[in-house]
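Worked example

This section walks through a single chain of length 269. The input is the sequence exactly as stored; nothing has been trimmed or padded.
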Amino acid sequence: MSSTAAARASAPHAPVAVALIAALSLLAWTALATWSAGPYARYLDHGSWADLPLLGALCRSLPQAELLTSFFFHGAAWLLMIAAMMLPTVLPLINVVARLVAGRKDAGVVIAAVLLGYALAWTAFGMVAFALDSAIRTEAARSTWFAAHGAFLGAAVLAMAGAFQFSALKYRCLDRCRTPFGFVNQYWKGRHPTWDGLRIGIAHGIFCVGCCWALMLVMFVVGMTNLGWMLLLAALMAAEKNLPIGRKIAAPVGLGLLGWAALLALGIV
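Given that input, the structure is written out below as tokens.
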């Protein structure tokens, strides 16, 4: 990084950017809560994998137009989830970028580009997750195995998420997410600020997905946009990425998920 960029990075951070992220996250939480209490809540509630046979049969019986409408609303719900759950975890990165571009006329555009890149990374993951989820639900509509073992798939996902908490990939991605200055130092060139901001956001988003994808899949087990679980998972991911003890949280969370998976498989919960 050039001396000019380093000087900017040492300048006081821009509280407006932090306030904007906080406002967007709060707005997303409010929108989700309002939506879940309104007449279109059926599009928001994706259901849990413990109810796969019923949900699969329902999806299979829906007309094509209703399926497209459902896909659109579930996509909107996913973006709201990302804004609500993940934006607070990216505040340290935004802080670094805001200091870097302090005083520039295009500072707002650069910060917006970072957020866009971050959202693109999570949206790509969401599309893959929804595709897999839809395939599982379609299979559930015509499989007698799911009728008898639907809860075991949820237990398997929880066990996978728990095991991932102990993986080297988890800690590698987590360590990168906990050092946002590294992304700025690597991708900021200064000649094309908006493009640099987009690359910073995408790169950070990819490592964030690598760190948190398994925890996000838990939402498919307990039911999409379950606000209580959203709050808990968001707090866990924010703590992992931002608190000094964040790296030590991963293992206890993994043990909790493995225990939950065992209880679910045994039919205790």
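What to look for: The radius of gyration is 20 Å.
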